[in-house]
Amino acid sequence: MKLLKFLHVYCLFCLSLAFSVSAEESDDLQSFENFFSTWRSFESPPVLNGAPDYTQATFDTRYLTFQKLKSRLFSYKTKEWTTEEQIDWHIVRAEMNGFDFNYRILKPWQRDPAFYKSVWTYKSDVPAHEGPTHHSVIELWSYQFPLNQTDQARLVEELTVIPAMNEQAKTNLTGNARELWIAGIRDIQEQVMVLQDTQKKTESYSAAELKKALTQAISSTQSFVSWLEAQSDLKTGPSGIGKDNYTWYQQNVHLVPMSWEDEVRLLQRELDRAWSSLKLEEHRNRNLPKLVAVKNQEEYQSLATRSAKKFLAFLDENEIVTVPDYFEPALKPHLGKYVPEDKRHFFYIGSHFDPTPLYSHFYHWFELARMEKSPNSRLIRREPLLYNIFDSRNEGTATAVEEIFMHAGLYDDNPRVREIVWIMLAQRAARGLGSLYAHANIMTMEEAGKIHMNWTPRGWMKTEPDLLIFEQHLYLRQPGYGTSYVTGKYLLDKALSVYAKNQEEQGNDFKLKEFLDELNRIGSIPISLGHWQLTNDKTDIDKLFSGQHH
To answer: Which residue among 34, 176, 344, 438 is least enclosed by CB atoms within 10 Å?
Structure first.
């Protein structure tokens, strides 16, 4: 709580500084970085009764200050700035558009009970948690049990936000998005179980304050669940934001140069391509032995270790990407474990045949390690971008490299594994396509889930319903996330093609390692901005910018 109060005071201080600087004095990079810090401080809300304040009255009051900040952003004269500096400006513009969109349209604090989930048991594999989250979440995964005295005190302080947050939620949640409401109850119920499990883990501690904080957090969350359930029959409205809002959000916040209709066409095309490629792959491999799933933990551990070693060696020896020392320790904790066949969801099914395609997607963990071990040289790109604006870059790249590494020869010694790559692409295209129809309110979340389930090859999405619910719920909560795997992949393919063409026209050989290393250096920013920096082609950004009303 002390930190929240400090940030609010600091925010007010920074704002006073920001508005005291004239435009004539402020077109240098240092001034803009100061403005960025001011914006980030403002974006974190003030405190109400010990929790971040998401009440409508506070938002309305703060929106006036936001409009002044937005005007300040557009007062910068950026034409003489370097490409990197101009890109940084667009990053801040996108974040501010995200704040504006949340205030006007998405309103997760009003429409989305899952927004009030406070306890997270896992580290996200992308720069920040997927979907809208409040500003005082508890990263329980970061604690080591048994807790030492310092961590006990830290957890006590963090737990005190839960009762205040839950009580505020009962006032703020005035929305009528039925599917978000019903699915969100599940998230809050899970929080009860996580807190109860933590209570069991710490019941032997002689820590009265911790016991009290946990008891109050559990009681409060149980009360919140009961309140949500009691209100649920009153919720009758749609949960999707509609085609026009979806398009505006994609183009002006996530800087994806596509409309809702464009994304439908792309995802349907990629779904068709994945299925047809899978069938051609199966035909090509028809005389080869089929893959056999491992049968126990020992077999899985052997396969996982062998696959990870082969994967890292392939990246290094075939000049795919620079492999720093931190890649192996970044990947190692995520090699997985044996799961009985009747409990395997989609990703476990594939990984028990061969986990290498999944490890390709775990390029995620390399990127997170890079943020920690080798932070971006540019302040504005050093921390996670707000509002999941990183999705086209991080999810798109992780999906793209699955196919890139395959085409580069990763499975030449075992062609059957190529089939898993196409199955994974089909699954991502199917679930993203369903999410588009859900946001257009053409389909319910359940109907969108049926596209996801029925168009994933081999019935691999029919085995375990929790993953299906989790993914479709997330994509309804966070517009564009469900499609970002495929749209980001497409935008990366496009950047690679223009980059390669430029190299050819300059008489240079295309080198994949140089391309991926430069992409990594640019950082976790929207692919459309990365495209600009990689190729000096800003056509997409100019089109998006000219279409924004500001």
So the answer is: 176
